[in-house]
Amino acid sequence: MKAMKARYLASYRTNHCSHRRGRTESADATWGSQHKHQAPNSDITNNKAPLSDCSTKPSLRTVHPIIIMPTIGLLLGSARTNGNAAGLTAWLLSLFNQRHGNNILDPNDPNFFEIVVVDPHTPPHPLGPVTDPIMAALIKDPSHYASPSTKQWSSFITSCAGIIILTPQFNRGYPGELKNALDHLYWEWRDKPVMLATYGGHGGDKCAAQLKSVLEGGLNMKYVCDVNITLPVEFVRGQQRVKARDFEDSPTSADVDLATSGDIAFLKQYADSISLALDMLLDAVKNQQTS
């Protein structure tokens, strides 16, 4: 087992979600029913193991430690099923696994993290407008949320040590469903390190600027950096898309040679920036956990 993990989260469960490092299955077609218990993995601007048999010697009972893996939540800005989100997610996770996947599992290793990708079509993601009668900033006890889905969203975000937001730029801004996902909560976001990866025909810098104001100023998150990815016009207005299957065969290695991979070769220029941004996010998380 490796220290670095990445998995899709089709529905948040408080007990266990099975996963395998470095796989993603047909993520291009839909983010919904086909992603139950699956797993895959610009420029920077700013189990419990069972107890031993103690029936005869209770004083010699051995308790194995529970390993808790710090979680980085990866939120998708767009819920479109025919866009570039699935492919860019698989690419980002492949970079993460390529850079960190050779670490040996060690619960004392500060580089022991897991990225959990939230499917925007299923719980705990709260699609839809904010309808709670009390503003989130006034709710410090999650049990006081009126909506069970908001309570579930609160539980998941609270469990995350850091956040990555991967989002397209829409009309010089960011998608409404992302704003709703953010506005359902307030205290749960506070002080969490966050990294942005925006994309679009113009790189998503205006989207990033708006989000930085909301995340840093409005929600008091620790804004780490952003990476802006300019998509070729055929990936925005045409039929070309970054597809998850482009990274399926070798998601944890450098076997996908973007320099010779035809239509997605443009991603190569952003690989170092994304890898550095991920390092910066993990450093921010580690610093916060040890402070």
Throw out a few tags for this protein.
alpha/beta, Rossmann fold
Task: Give an overview in words.
The longest helix has 23 residues, at about 270-290. With about 290 residues, the protein is an alpha/beta fold. The chain is globular and about 50 Å long. The chain has helices spanning about 85-100, 150-160, 175-185, 205-220, 235, 270-290, and strands at about 5-10, 70-75, 115-120, 160-170, 195-200, 220-230. The chain has one domain: Rossmann fold. It contains six helices and six strands; from the N terminus they run E-E-H-E-H-E-H-E-H-E-H-H. Helix 1 packs across helix 6. The chain is about 25% helix and about 15% strand. Strands 1-3-2-4-5-6 form a six-stranded parallel beta sheet, sandwiched between helices.
Q: What is the fold's blueprint, element by element?
A:
Layout: E1 5-9, E2 71-76, H1 85-100, E3 114-118, H2 148-159, E4 160-168, H3 176-183, E5 193-200, H4 205-218, E6 222-230, H5 233-236, H6 268-290
Parallel strand pairs: 1-3, 2-3, 2-4, 4-5, 5-6
Order of helices and strands: EEHEHEHEHEHH
Q: Which structural class do you get from the secondary structure elements? A: alpha/beta
Per the CATH scheme, the topology name is Rossmann fold
CATH superfamily: Flavodoxin domain
Largest sheet: 6 strands, parallel
Rg, alpha carbons: 19 Å
| CATH architecture term | 3-Layer(aba) Sandwich
Tally of distinct domains: 1
- Unreliable runs, pLDDT <50, ≥5 residues? 1-67, 251-255
CATH class: Alpha Beta
For the secondary structure, the number of strands is 6
Calculate the mean pLDDT score and round it: 76
How many angstroms does the end-to-end distance come to? 29 Å
The total count of helices amounts to 6
Overall geometric form:
globular
Strand order of the largest sheet: 1-3-2-4-5-6
How much strand content do the residues show?
A: 5-15%
